[in-house]
Write a structure and sequence with these properties.
- Pfam families: His_Phos_1 (PF00300).
- The chain is an alpha/beta fold.
- The protein has a domain of about 150 residues: Rossmann fold (3-Layer(aba) Sandwich).
- It contains 7 helices and 6 strands; from the N terminus they run E-H-E-H-E-H-H-H-E-H-H-E-E.
- The chain has a 6-stranded mixed β-sheet with strand order 3-2-4-1-5-6.
- Helix 1 crosses helix 2 and helix 6 crosses helix 7.
- The protein is globular.
- The mean pLDDT is about 95.
């Protein structure tokens, strides 16, 4: 039986011109996770990650905390959907910068609506694959792990959308549940699967064992 650890990237730059960039806190979250893995004696046989900057930066922080690990395999199918393109399908005019609680809530209300329609096949956001193809990119990574890494410990660094989709795929949840899983996943959170050549099994979802102390309580973030 192998173990797959799926990690969401550290806090990115929500509301900035370039979201795809870890904040200073996101860098600390990532490094702290690597330190936690090292303290637990975890040694990864393989690492997969998406091709986004925040994935590479999160991996770098984990690697720094671990003190050396395998060279990661970049798997573009683990990249996040384009939230702006999704929102544009239901709100064609540009949104104001989400710098107030109400604007923040509006952003995520529209994102839920757009995701629902994309997953139903009603819309195809500009520059994005169909939802069927998005899922295929994620399941191809899971299939690779099952096929190539039986009995190994594998780390996968990605984003909230792909990780919640992977969990939804394993559990057979409806689209609405997958969206809710996506909305609740925290930065640098760890999700664990056990796997054999036939299947993946969910063990934990959205945990923060590396931040489970009063010292790190203020490090817990969602966006």
């Amino acid at each position: 039986m192998g173990q797959l650890y799926l990690v969401r990237h550290g806090q990115a730059s929500f509301g900035a011109d370039d979201y795809d960039q870890l904040s200073e806190l996101g860098q600390r979250q990532s490094r702290r996770l690597g330190e936690y893995f090292r303290a637990k004696g975890l040694v990864f046989d393989a690492v997969l990650m998406g091709s986004l900057k925040r994935h590479a930066q999160t991996w770098q922080g984990i690697s720094d905390g671990l003190g050396g690990t395998p060279t990661p395999m970049v798997w573009p199918g683990l990249n996040e959907y384009d939230s702006e393109a999704v929102i544009h399908t239901v709100h064609p005019t540009p949104l104001a910068k989400p710098d107030t609680p109400e604007k923040y809530r509006q952003h995520f209300r529209l994102l839920r609506d757009g995701l629902t329609q994309w997953m139903a096949g009603t819309v195809t956001p500009r520059g994005m694959p169909s939802y069927v193809d998005f899922v295929a990119g994620i399941t191809s990574a899971l299939d690779h792990v099952k096929r190539e890494h039986v009995g190994h410990k594998v780390l996968l660094v990605s984003s909230g959308g792909p990780i919640s989709t992977a969990v939804g795929h394993i559990l057979g949840t409806p689209a609405e549940t997958t969206i809710e899983l996506n909305m609740r996943i925290r930065n640098s959170a760890v999700t664990e699967f056990a796997f054999n050549p036939k299947r993946h099994t969910l063990l934990t979802y959205n945990t923060l064992p590396h931040l489970d102390s009063s010292e790190h309580a203020s490090w817990v973030t969602y966006a």
